[in-house]
Amino acid sequence: MHTIAPRPIRRPAGQRRVEILDQTRLPHARHWLGLDSLDAAAHAIRVMQVRGAPLIGATAAYGLALGLEQDASDQGLAAAAARLAATRPTAVNLAWALGRMLACLAPLEPEARPAAAWVEADAIAEEDAAQNRAIGQHGLALLQQLPRRPDGPLQLMTHCNAGWLATVEQGTALAPIYAARAAGIPVHVWVSETRPRNQGLLTAWELREAGVPHTLIADNAAGQLILTGQVDAVITGADRIAANGDVANKVGTVLKALACAHRGIPFYVAAPRSTLDFACPNGAAIPIEEREGDELRLVAGLDEQGGTARVRQIPLDEAVCNPAFDVTPAALVSALITERGHCPASAEGLLGLYPEQRHA
Known about the structure:
Blueprint: E1 9-10, E2 18-21, E3 32-35, H1 38-46, H2 53-70, H3 74-85, H4 92-105, H5 113-145, E4 154-159, H6 175-182, E5 187-192, H7 200-210, E6 214-217, H8 222-227, E7 233-236, E8 240-242, E9 247-250, H9 253-263, E10 267-270, E11 276-277, H10 294-297, E12 298-302, E13 308-312, E14 325-328, E15 335-338, E16 341-343, H11 347-353
């Protein structure tokens, strides 16, 4: 059985710095990058050297710890948190992690903050890893209920990357797939490439590393595969889930949900507690990040000599629209999978798993 690769963020023993797997270099090169300052951590989040909502949250926690190494005053703490909060607007895990860090650190004297920050950031990372493992088991229970094909493996589809590259360990949407493989269930994964950032290529790389059978598809092929019965279920991650169960995820997600609803097959969303935003009433209140147009205009890849290159496929003056996320209405989601179990995508469903939020 193949094993899952190391975590994409790590802290060398005894050191007040972290290392990340630079995801802008994948899938062509595996390159570890050291983060030793607040500026480096903020840059890594903003330019997507780290991406995936849970991993962004963990990186932000470590980024705050790095910032306090330089200035642990009240002003330094507030400025570092504000700097990190401004890097990416949609993934609520970022704000959640910073809020948790501030609640821990603000009451302390400045001289006690740096050491405490590293302890709390480590705790956030370890909790995410444990939640990912739990999501895998709860998602496995749903996959085990799907009708099995007599002539082949369970056919699953993903969108974007929500595996171990997007979290601290194992992933959200991919965690049940890894659990299914470990349980002896044959699976095949249809991997949507997820333009323009092509994060599906990271999923394909990750599945190949783990020995999971998969096929990469153009985003626009997903509807055809779903509607012709070649997909048994779709499972994605999320960047924010509103209190009513609406889901913000990488742009293109809602198209798959619509196709699943028409075909009558499950559309699952897997995410940890840090992705749930009980203060956000519905999807209309979720800010949608608009990224720079050159992500559409330029294509990255390898040149004939094997070096990385960016090639322009759209003229510089061509008007483009590049929203990074879309919102899938709760009515299109078959179940939400969290570390506490699975539930309907609704306010009551979420409160059933998190009853403490009724009076928060």
